[in-house]
Amino acid sequence: MAMAALAAVRRCRVLLHGAVKSSFRGSPSQPRSYSAGRLSVQERIERKRQAALVGGGQKRIDAQHGRGKLTARERVALLLDPDSFVEYDAFVEHRCSDFGMEADHNKFPGDSVVTGQGRINGRLVYVFSQDFTVFGGSLSGAHAQKICKIMDQAMLVGAPVIGLNDSGGARIQEGVESLAGYADIFLRNVMASGVVPQISLIMGPCAGGAVYSPALTDFTFMVKDTSYLFITGPDVVKSVTNEDVTQEELGGAKTHTAVSGVAHKAFENDIDALLNLREFFNFLPLSNKDPSPVTECHDPSDRLVPGLDTLVPLESTKAYDMLDVIHSIVDERDFFEIMPNYAKNIVVGFARMNGRTVGIVGNQPKVASGCLDINSSVKGARFVRFCDAFNVPIITFVDVPGFLPGTAQEYGGIIRHGAKLLYAFAEATVPKITIITRKAYGGAYDVMSSKHLRGDVNYAWPSAEVAVMGAKGAVQIIFRGKNNQADAEAEYVEKFANPFPAAVRGFVDDIVVPSTTRRRICRDLEVLATKKQTNPWKKHANVPL
Amino acid sequence: NGSKWDLNLGLLVHRRVCYLLGSCHVVTTVFPSALFSFLSVQTFDKILIANRGEIACRVMKTCKKMGIKTVAVHSDVDANAVHVKMADEAVCVGPAPTSKSYLNMDAIMNAIRQTGAQAVHPGYGFLSENKEFAKRLAAEGVSFIGPDTHAIQAMGDKIESKLIAKAAKVNTIPGFDGVVKDADEAVRIANEIGYPVMIKASAGGGGKGMRIAWNDEETREGFRFSSQEAASSFGDDRLLIEKFIDNPRHIEIQVLADKHGNALWLNERECSIQRRNQKVVEEAPSTFLDPETRRAMGEQAVSLAKAVNYSSAGTVEFLVDSRKNFYFLEMNTRLQVEHPITECITGLDLVQQMIRIAKGFPLQHTQAEIPINGWAIESRVYAEDPYKSFGLPSIGRLSQYQEPLNLHNVRVDSGIEEGSDISIYYDPMISKLVTYGATRAEALKKMEDALDNYVIRGVTHNIPLLREIIVHPRFISGDISTKFLPEVYPEGFKGHQLTATGRKELLATAASLFVAAQLRAQKFLGDLRVSNTQQERRSWELCVELEKGVHMLGVSRSGATYTVEIDGDKLEVSSDWNLASPLLTVTLNGIHRTLQCLSRNAAGEISLQYLGTTFKLRVLSKLAAALSVHMPEKVPEDTSSILRSPMPGTVVAVSVKAGDTVAEGQEICVIEAMKMQNSMTAAKTAKVRSVHCKPGETVGEGDLLVELE
Predict the structure, then answer these.
(1) What are the b/e assignments for B367-393, b being 16+ CB within 10 Å?
(2) Burial class (CB in 10 A: 0-12, 13-18, 19+), B24
(3) Alpha helix stretches (DSSP H) within A24-67
(4) Cβ distance B76 to B94 under 8 Å?
(5) Contact residues on chain B for A367, CB-CB shorter than 8 A
(6) Residue A121 with chain B: CB contacts under 8 Å
(7) Rounded to an integer, what is the distance from CA A339 to the centroid of its chain?
(8) 518-577 in chain B: CB under 8 A from chain A
(9) Residue B616: helix, strand or coil by DSSP?
(10) Quick check: B420 and A310 CB within 8 A?
(11) Where's the ATP-grasp domain (chain B) (predicted)?
């Protein structure tokens, strides 16, 4: 597969290389005899700096704009606070001397990536932004080295890394050095995982081996219509499997946010994406040593939400929108949903409670009855693990009829994948608050941050039903072959379709009036802010992958 | 006790106005005598309110003040409704459709027996003018809080009521007093009356079965259409013909009559602002009537009431032409929707009066004691889209809802609350917003404030239209007729048209809000890792898009005040910049305004409700704006016309058929999966092209269910 991947990348690379040769006239086109001592060094510094600022030159910048994309530097400028960017390695050049690459006109100060650190709303972040105008943003040894440098520093000081990906792939001319560069980055992605938040924003092509860096980061966002992620492009797909598929269908934003689950969200265009990324960044702690951030909040923590008292329909077969619950409880109805178009039967995302960032997980009764299936389990598990790694308290809203039955699910390994969500909730040591809004049936009840998995505060709304299964199914088993099923069902409903069986056993801490939920959660979070809990020492755990 | 009340009436009237407008807690402590009057007579122990929504709540409020226990009836979907919570007891009378619940007489009679209610208040609509219902109540010895069956029947038939009115010396529209046999007779009568004429159904109402004819040919055509429509709508194809009054006003007189032959007129209500024959804005008194006309109308209304031995509250509707000629239209034998404005200017509680009268008490007042104190305006706030034919119903859940009760002299009659559903089953009225002032100008100004402070989220509402009507020069000058809306907005309502100043106010507010949000985003509490070296910004260069125009703005900040420069002008914007509140109260160059921020996102898009209308703006930094020229134009993909099954399941119900028009958010079909019913709704308002599923069918994920046009 790696060979196929490279083949795809190579094809792409050769084309680009050809283009570079035919059209590019090196930007430092001045005479190159620098012998006039100190002054000329100043001059050379200035000239190199200027050259670094225009990347591949105006023509390529215009071409980049023509594709509806911004340049690497424009992106950095939009992402960071004004005047906060501090660039590293603007003078680094590639070291390839084959295929004419050693020629001056093939050298670009800074090579095909812009790196450095800066601030988003005053908070430190490390950034690399691949420059498509220089060799199509292809990854050279030097390019990789620049990225590794900022990642190393981000780890040292404990600050997130944001990658703005726009690269044709490996620098073919450099061969194995380019591959080594990828591996160096992958290793750092893995080392940084769980230490500092890592975010990838795909803003152009990202193919072949290059896709694994975003895949290793915590969040992958995409820009609609101008970004692609795939192992092999449509040409190779055609030659290997004889499938006809477009770039967009194979690896566009829609595919990855709705079908594959590779990307967490897509934005309309570069500007929209970068502005949203700033907003998203404000939710994140800077590192695993930092607490969940608290921003100034104008929404009263004791605000009652009267609408919640009537939200859950009287008939248990009727759906409602869990997003209505979430929006009305969190600060200012501000909810940054992660993977809003994938496995919609579970809702995950970030919000704030009294200013403090929290992770929200909720079953969505509106979609597939809110059941847990393979995709929703994996989606939920990954999100819960991020929150736990970075000290973000988890609030779980439960209305789950169970795991989805059927051959498709069993053959797909629902047992293995469902275990991931169970594992993630059980392992998490951050504050965990759970609200059972309605159904909490069967194994899915256990999974959804139950008291038994060390839930700190578990509430039930009066509409909660904690049971092994729904009344009909239960009665069919308990009273198999007996008449009077209707009476039995009524008895079961009376006994189990309410919060009492769980409450009398202490499996929920209290039965709360829904309208007071926000107030309760805000108070609990304040109490739990000093929670300390550690899992037994281990080299690392063995999550059922 | 009654006499004591009468003596104090002059003094109390003003207090009672406050009482009806404000919160009762304040008034009852300050003026205990006001409450005293409610408790002073023994009427009923328990009343069942055979209605829902705001009017049920309205009736219960008075019952509670009078110490009467209340019984609500409700359909199953209304089990959590406000009127149910408010009542002492509640009985479910059937499923959602009104014919099976609120119109279900058997179920309601059962509810009465079950709860032992002694009387029934029918509200308006539903069974309020149903003589059958009144009869059944009488048969079981339960009081009907309204007129007797004779009056209901007499006034319910247009032909009969006109004959009675004529006999009672009430001005009637020149026309033929009887049923028109055929088209030839229609033409002959039309020529006798003189064109234009109106052909209408005898049993009609709400504009159905009504045609205007300007010549013989149109008369024949109108006769045919109206009789067909009347037959299908009312099951009664009898028609009548009368003179058509061009450009009329709709002014009605509130009457109050007891069972002892006494009757009063409680002044008029001006209800000319209508769309499709439904009232939108009402006021009392009318700017148009002089005291003589008012008295003449009042006296005729009373004489009509007496002619049918009317008791209880009733309304006599008149058409008034430009020369103040008035003609009897019809009499409504119930409490009207717009009764609160009469209460405001007279100080009477009409529901209390109705209850007293029903118990057999004589009227408490004489005609001389009925005042006109100040001015009251009522806006009917509907869940509907005013940009479509002045209002097409919309449905949804009130995700946020806040009535402007923080303002003085504002009364809101509503039967919903935050979280309530506005469903397709019932009237889409959200509330009646009533403001009061010593003068009309004061009441109107208060209405502006009240509409600006009214927070409704989750459903489309008609506040944009209401807010425009009350500030329109023709409305302010009182130059109105029932054709006001189509005349003022011949191309349909398009929302508030910004003036140059208004545009600047809006731009400045949006820019300031943007900056306030940007600054807040940098405030991390207790975080030692936020940059100390970074200077706090004091000035911004912003680019704001509004209605396809792009404006460069300079913003500078000093404390909570922002100075915004637009095209050489400077605007000072100050506010508390509370980013959580749905209301945005700002002072713009010293002028106080309340806007509402409907949405705000990271990409700089801001929706602001300004003077009632929602405007979409986009605020970008200068850099982002400069770079946005490179962003590709995108045509939004339309996937809203195809509805696919999101999961495998069974189709439980299909609520539409090909050719139906569905509203956005309306249920199209229900899919059951995992023992859960999932309601599939329309993503837009459109006609149904084809339906590909039927109840009982099993569907797979992604199967086509319904196509819209």
Answers:
(1) eebbbbebbbbbbbbbbbbbbeebbbb
(2) middle
(3) 37-54, 58-66
(4) yes
(5) 646-647, 678
(6) 521-522, 524
(7) 8
(8) 520-527, 529-531, 534, 537
(9) strand
(10) yes
(11) 162-359
- Which among A124, A226, A306 has CB closest to B419? A306
Among B42, B53, B57, B89, CA closest to B70: B89
Whole-prediction pTM value? 0.86
Task: Report in angstroms the alpha-carbon separations of B643 from A370, B354, B423, B646, B705.
Answer: 20, 51, 21, 9, 6
Q: Verify whether the Cβ–Cβ distance A77 to B623 is below 8 Å.
A: yes
What is d(CA B137, CA B126) in angstroms, rounded to the nearest whole number? 15
Q: Please calculate the CA angle B156-B159-B162 and round it to the nearest 5 degrees.
A: 90
**The Cα angle at residue B225 between residues B222 and B230, in degrees rounded to 5:** 115
* Separation of alpha carbons B156 and A85, rounded Å: 79
Longest dimension (CA), chain B: 93
Give contacts of B 586-615 with A, CB under 8 A: 602-604
Q: Please name the residue that has the structure tokens 């069967």.
A: A442
Tokens of B165: 């009115």
Residue B37 CA: distances (Å) to CA of B3, B27, B189: 11, 13, 54
What are residue A400's phi and psi, to 5 degrees? -130, 125
- B431's enclosing H/E stretch is strand B429-437
| pLDDT tens, residue by residue, B658-667 | 888 888 878 8
- Residue A379 CA to residue A377 CA, distance in Å, equals 5
The helix/strand/coil state of B105 is: helix
Strand residue runs (E) in A185-283: 198-202, 205-207, 219-223, 228-230, 265-267
For residue A516, count other CB atoms closer than 10 A to its CB.
16
- Min Cα distance B647 → chain A (Å) is 6
CA dihedral (A50, A53, A56, A61) positive or negative: negative
A275 contacts B604? CB cut-off 8 A: yes
Decide if B237 contacts B273 (C-beta within 8 A). Answer: no
Q: What type of residue sits at position A517?
A: T
Q: Determine how many CB atoms are found less than 10 A away from the CB of residue B182.
A: 12
Q: What is the CA radius of gyration of chain A?
A: 27
Q: List residues bridging with A47 in a β-sheet.
A: none
The number of angstroms, rounded, from the C-alpha of B496 to the middle of its chain's C-alpha atoms is 20
Q: Distance (Å, rounded) from C-alpha B232 to C-alpha B294?
A: 39
What's the angle, vertex CA B418, arms to CA B393 and CA B595, rounded to 5?
A: 80
Nearest chain B residue to A224 by CA distance is B634
Cα separation, A132 vs A62, whole angstroms: 12
> How far apart are the C-alpha atoms of B539 and B567, rounded to whole Å?
17
Partner-chain contact A368 B419, CB within 8 Å: no
Helix (H, G, I), strand (E, B) or coil at B92: strand
Q: How many CB atoms lie within 10 A of CB B127?
A: 24
Residue B692's nearest CA partner among B678, B677, B679, B702 is B702
User: How far is it between the farthest Cα atoms of chain A?
Assistant: 105
Catalytic sites of B, residue numbers: 330
Q: Give 10-residue mean pLDDT values along chain A (545 residues).
A: 42 39 42 59 91 93 96 97 95 88 88 97 97 95 97 98 95 91 97 98 92 96 96 91 92 95 97 98 97 95 94 87 97 97 97 98 94 97 98 98 93 96 98 97 95 97 90 79 78 87 95 97 97 95 94
Report which secondary-structure segment, H or E, holds B91.
strand B89-94
Which residues in A64-98 are b (16+ Cβ under 10 Å) and which e?
A: bbeebbbbbbbbbbbbbbeebbebbbbebbbebee
Is A122 among the residues known to form the active site? Answer: no
